[in-house]
Prior knowledge:
heterodimer; A: Alpha-Beta Plaits; 27 helices; 18% strand; extended; B: alpha/beta; five-stranded parallel sheet; disordered N terminus; disordered C terminus; CheY-like_superfamily (chain B); Bact_response_regulator (chain B)
Amino acid sequence: MNPLLAQFLAEANDLLAQVDEGLLQLERVPGDPELVNEVFRAAHTFKGSSGLFDFPELTRLTHAAEDLLDQVRSGRLALDSGMTDDLLAAFDLIRGWLAHVTTHERLPASAGTDAAGLITRLRAPLGGEAVTAVATTATSTATIDVAPEWLAWLDAEWLTETAGWLATTSSTMRFVRYFPDSDCFFRAEDPLHLVRQVPALERLGVVQPRVWPGPDDYDEYVCLLSFILATRASLGELEYLFRYVPDQVQIVELDSDAITRHLSGEPPLQVEAAVTAAVMPMIDSDLAADARALLHAAQSSLAVDDVVAGDTRLRSVVHAVASAARALGVPVNLTGADRATLLAEIDRLLGAAAPAPAGVAEDLSTAVAAPVPAAAVADAPGRADDPGGQVGTRVLKVDQEKVDRLMELVGELNVAKNGLTFLADAAEEEFGSRVLSRRIKDQYAGMHRIAEELQAAVMDVRMLPLSVAFGRFPRLVRDLSRRLGKTIELVTEGEDTMADKDVIEALGDPLVHLVRNSLDHGIEPSDERIAAGKPPAARLTLAAVADGDAVIVEVSDDGRGVDPERVKRKAYEKGLISEEELETLSESDAVNLVFRAGFSTADQVSDLSGRGVGMDAVRASVEKLGGSVTMRSKLGQGTFTRLRLPLSMAVTQVMVVSVAGQRFGIPVDLVVETVRVPAGEMGRVLHQDVVMMRGEVVPVIDLARALDMPWAPTPGEDRRILVVSVNSQRIGLLVEQFHREVDVILKPMEGLLAYADEFSGTALLGDGLVLLVLNMKEVLGLAARVA
Amino acid sequence: MTSDTPTRARVLVVDDAATVRMYHNSLLGEAGFEVSEAANGLEAVEAALGTPFDLYVVDVNMPKMNGYACVEALRSETVGTAAPIVMISTEDRPGDADRAYRAGANLYLVKPVAGDRLVRVATMLTADRSWAAEKDVAA
């Protein structure tokens, strides 16, 4: 894709998001002039950029939307929800088109028909068609009347088809003849590569010389081929692409009629001859036209009566007039000129520069790419490759992959750095040099500090505000509440709270689920709310707050709440809890049963949140992030769901332990303590090893057995037990040895091992060993099965 | 033309649309200009205060400070430049051009401007830079 189009698509994304957000805010604060202005400007900027490409339907639809917004901006129209719907629909349609453009570099064929209805609706409040006339795009280049002779090289069948298609659409087709210079290879030009870059290419023909040179004369460094191509790309795009070789291309735009006449045998326009002959006068006439435009502009400037001598405006006018005179080749002396002298000089110059005689050359100039004035090219002292001194780049937009790559490198640096500690040990133990060992350790300390700072810096780059995750909800809540016929006010708090991009991304789905659930089941219809003595409009709150190295996201509503008795009964019916639990389970524990797999309270499955995949999916994805989810509810008053997530998932702190000589990592978050227990104090209750700790019985699981590894503790030696807390339950793990805690960058399991659920990932240690990090929940399940 | 001047002409492209900036930047850059960019009027004025430019290509509708206000600021004592200013806008309503000339622009063009035209005008307006440089003497 050419970089200009890529840039446009990236920019369009941001602008459309601004439009959407603004429109939704406007519904809440109708008529806020600041907001209207913002939306209008985003739409306007978008339209301006779209004009650089041949997307006529896109420009027309945007124009219609912009005109409507302009009326709202100037206060002539009040935005109602019907208009908002139409505007949102228009920009949704555009977004769809842009997705199509991303892959196909052209609008979908149905664009014209898709847009027609919307354009009519958008224009209806403006008084309809009268404005449409103004809206017709001014971007199209003049079509040339007669086909150039080289069109005959394109196959007639395709031309017939194209002529038929052009007759039914507002799209345009441009034909390019590209004659690469014979010594173009010496200027590092690659004609074939260039034509392959042509966007929306429909046809490409390679033209051979009529007579190839004989073997003795043949020079492989001379370019003998030329090209002919048909494209839907706009003139701007083509000029941009061929900007290095403007004098080697001819671009013509032909309408259906011209092609048909060409096919029926009309004598061709000798464009090549015409161009060669017309090149000089064309440059002249273009240059003269621009010079005249400058002079007319100068007249307008001088018509302003407060222009006085010494004013920067007057001096700039003098400069412009002098420039125009120079271009026209008419000598002037403007030193110390005042307004009257200037106006007289302009008159004289305009008289001297009477328009070029023939209209032919002028017409051609719009259809045939005119060479850039020789002076501009020849005098260019160098290529402006360096964008030095750019002003508009205070914020860098960086591809996510680059940041991920940086993070990976930081991880590798950490590993390499950790290698130094092993080297220090080796220096002392193997080579007996304590001094060298200490030096290495000093070096390590220095590197460690820098690596930590680097890591913190990279992590900081990855931080995004929660507003990214919250951004989709105003629209979602608006659309869903309309569909459900409920009135809901969405409140967001703490959008500025930052979290790692991975966390933000992974947060999206669970949040959508919770919000939909709330809208669908939690919030009552207005009449029910009024009957319950509540305000008819429900309130849904999304709030985020940072808490140490965690971020807490809360979704709360003032709906009907969750009935703990019903939940318990349902859970019992589904076999999720025992009869005893049905009696004893506390209300708050009962509410949290909704997170159990296979639980769904919806009496009727709606198209919003039903379908059985319920809150357990939320719990699973939150736990996958290393977080937790809890729900509190008061019957009749509302529900409150709290997600607790780590601020960042990139670095995990693990405790290293070993069994059977192999090391494993266990997330430090889970570790409660490490204890050594004399063998004699180990107990056994109902086939389960236990240990008494501060008056509490803690079950002990043999990690080696759970993982099916051959190891048994040496009889008589103290048992090493790592106490972890899983699901707020304390469990001891019998291990061979404790090692230190390390910071690792966890990589997910890949390939065949991807299905090994008992491991949450792997990490590289400083001594080159790969550490398997255990997924404690799964390991405990495994242990239960083994037992 | 530019051969008697030691440095390349410096152009400031002012537009809030990054795509348009890229388009103008590449056209002028290829033609040998030294191009800088600003995303709105305010940035343009800031940039001009830092180093003056030989030519300004300014969009009309921009956030923070629109094109007219930007041109007025460039011409006023704040910046005080007499360098040529070309305004480029999507607006083609009667009165828009006059407003641009009142603010101090030297040429008003309607988008999209053909690439060769922009380069031609820019080359014409920067061929002899002594007029703009006179400012230093006058001031």
